[in-house]
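Try this one yourself first.
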């Protein structure tokens, strides 16, 4: 549980907020996410069933549920996990006993495609009711046949629906393996089952609308009993609520990544977090780092944090210390894996950490909701929770052997697919600080912008850029003109459709390449091109890049013979920064709600004079 909300208080808070029609706030959502007790999570899910469709900051998501068994408590547990991550789920369970026909006919899409369909699988789908314990090779063949059947059903469903289908691996029931008395035969069955699970995971390679999670592996890491023999016999419910809660969190991690609700920044304390001991008391040479326990635990945390940074997580340092000894420790300690240059933002001082985190968020042009903060002090975490409730908190007190598990267990930083921009993100944010320093020597902002040497590269989407564009659509809130979040399958389909244009925009200046930071989705008509959405990373706002994008779109539409370029703005409560975009780009409001138009037969586009546009003729994304 969190530092501030106990389970009994949590349920009372949920009743109050849900009864009042108010979605749970960040502190309550954080407590939901950390529930380990399936009974409490089940009660919470039942209360949350009363959440109204208007979820405020919660991101709507439709989730279908198909099962080869009775789903039991799974919808309630899944609801708790999804609300905890910031989603507003509409759960749509399928009909019992109709798993195969529902997949084959995409029956779950009767009222429109859900975003995700969670397939709850048990061993009954793969094992025959009667099997010969003396003929394991025959059982192996049967498992392979049933896996092929499942693959065909998923493929057929993909043809009929755009929903992402989520499957999972299965634990091998002891009643199956232990009924084979030959140890060699039992080992062969285990091998076959592991191959089955490997093949289930490989189903994700068949399509970008099939995903798989490793439930068998997750159950091995969680102290819960997977099976309930009595409920299985009584009601065809093979899994315990504890196992279903583990699955719910695996599904939640996928949905979190799909909706762009994952975090970008990891802010870290130093004393008794990244190293053992208090620097001001023991000096740089006295901190515990490397060697035997507990120093090896702190070094393992640093090694894990380094891996996260290599995958694009932005690191920030938030420590109450004097700056000079911290710099010496980071620079000189031989067992230090994280050095000064590892951090994109640093606040080493004696100021309140909530204020330091807010200042670092401002300097990085990110919302504090993008931050995860790890600290050993309950006081510091409590202060941050009180002032910045949307910051995710990770406790670093207690046994240091659990530091890595505490950091990773919620999958705060999960993404669907790692892109080239993800891997370079930490350096991009370090470069931003240098750019801000450079801006201080100019008399006007326009003079500074000319000196930056800004270049916008525009290209039609390719198979390589589609994942990044879908990621931008999911994660961008501030400069998101219509709120339409085209996922990877939709973006790929539009990029190969002659009636649409999907464009990727990257930005560079004298300080370096920002990577792909913008995207546009356009319907191409004979006379009118309609921009269905434009998203732009907040880290390039304020340089006129958005106007250059509008100018490029206008030039492309004009060259294709269109006379009008049309766009929309739909306020979301979080995209106010983009509210005047179409007006600033020279578009005129029409009678339509939030619709703007640019006459392409007169005048020039709105591209600022300080931005040079480079157009690359790339091949369209392959389907």
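Now uncover the answer:
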């Amino acid at each position: 549980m969190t530092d501030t909300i106990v389970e009994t208080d949590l349920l009372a808070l949920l009743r109050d907020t849900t009864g009042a029609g108010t979605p749970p706030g960040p502190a309550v959502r954080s407590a939901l996410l950390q529930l380990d007790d399936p009974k409490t999570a089940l009660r919470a899910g039942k209360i949350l069933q009363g959440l109204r469709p208007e979820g405020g900051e919660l991101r709507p998501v439709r989730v279908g549920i198909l099962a080869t068994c009775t789903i039991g408590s799974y919808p309630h547990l899944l609801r708790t996990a999804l609300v905890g991550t910031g989603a507003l789920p509409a759960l749509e369970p399928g009909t019992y006993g109709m798993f195969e026909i529902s997949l084959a006919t995409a029956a779950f899409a009767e009222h429109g495609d859900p975003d995700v369909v969670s397939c709850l699988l048990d061993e009954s789908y793969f094992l025959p009711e009667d099997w010969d314990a003396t003929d394991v090779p025959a059982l192996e063949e049967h498992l392979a046949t049933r896996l092929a059947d499942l693959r065909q059903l998923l493929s057929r469903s993909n043809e009929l629906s755009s929903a992402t289908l989520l499957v999972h691996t299965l634990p091998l029931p002891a009643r199956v393996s232990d009924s084979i008395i030959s140890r060699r035969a039992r080992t062969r069955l285990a091998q076959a089952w592991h191959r089955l699970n490997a093949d289930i995971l490989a189903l994700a390679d068949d399509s970008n609308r099939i995903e798989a999670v490793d439930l068998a592996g997750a159950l091995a890491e969680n102290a819960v009993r997977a099976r309930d023999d009595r409920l299985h016999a009584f009601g065809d419910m093979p899994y315990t609520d504890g196992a279903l809660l583990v699955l719910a969190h695996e599904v939640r991690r996928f949905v979190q990544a799909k909706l762009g609700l994952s975090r970008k920044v990891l802010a870290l304390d130093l004393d008794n977090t990244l190293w053992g001991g208090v620097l001001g008391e023991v000096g740089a040479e006295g901190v515990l780092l490397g060697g035997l326990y507990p120093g090896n635990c702190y070094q393992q945390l640093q090694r894990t944090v380094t891996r996260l940074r290599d995958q694009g997580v932005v690191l920030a340092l938030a420590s109450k210390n004097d700056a000079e000894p911290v710099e010496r420790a980071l620079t000189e300690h031989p067992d230090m894996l994280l050095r000064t240059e590892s951090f994109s933002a640093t606040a080493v001082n004696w100021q309140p950490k909530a204020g330091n985190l807010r200042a670092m968020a401002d300097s990085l042009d990110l919302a504090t909701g993008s931050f995860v903060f790890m600290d050993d002090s309950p006081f510091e975490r409590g202060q941050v929770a009180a002032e910045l409730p949307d910051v995710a908190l990770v406790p670093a007190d207690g046994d240091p052997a659990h530091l890595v598990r505490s950091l990773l267990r919620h999958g705060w930083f999960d993404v669907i697919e790692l892109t080239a921009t993800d891997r370079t993100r930490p350096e991009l944010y370090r470069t931003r600080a240098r750019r801000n320093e450079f801006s201080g020597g100019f008399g006007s902002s326009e003079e500074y912008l000319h000196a930056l040497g800004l270049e916008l590269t525009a290209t039609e989407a390719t198979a390589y850029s589609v994942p990044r564009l879908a990621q931008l659509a999911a994660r961008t809130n501030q400069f998101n003109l219509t709120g339409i979040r085209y996922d990877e399958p939709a973006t790929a389909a539009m990029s190969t459709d002659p009636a649409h244009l999907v464009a990727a925009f990257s930005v560079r200046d004298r300080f370096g390449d920002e990577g792909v930071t913008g995207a546009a989705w356009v319907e191409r008509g004979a006379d009118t091109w309609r921009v269905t959405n434009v998203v732009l990373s907040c880290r390039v706002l304020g340089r006129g890049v958005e106007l250059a994008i509008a100018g490029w779109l206008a030039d492309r539409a004009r060259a294709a013979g269109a006379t009008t370029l049309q766009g929309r703005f739909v306020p979301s409560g979080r995209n106010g920064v983009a509210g005047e975009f179409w007006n600033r780009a020279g578009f005129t409001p029409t009678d339509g709600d939030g619709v703007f138009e640019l006459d392409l037969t007169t005048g020039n586009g709105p591209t600022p004079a300080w931005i040079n546009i480079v157009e690359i003729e790339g091949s369209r994304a392959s389907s």
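Discussion: The CA atoms of residues 38 and 241 lie 6 Å apart. The first strand starts at residue 59 and ends at 67.
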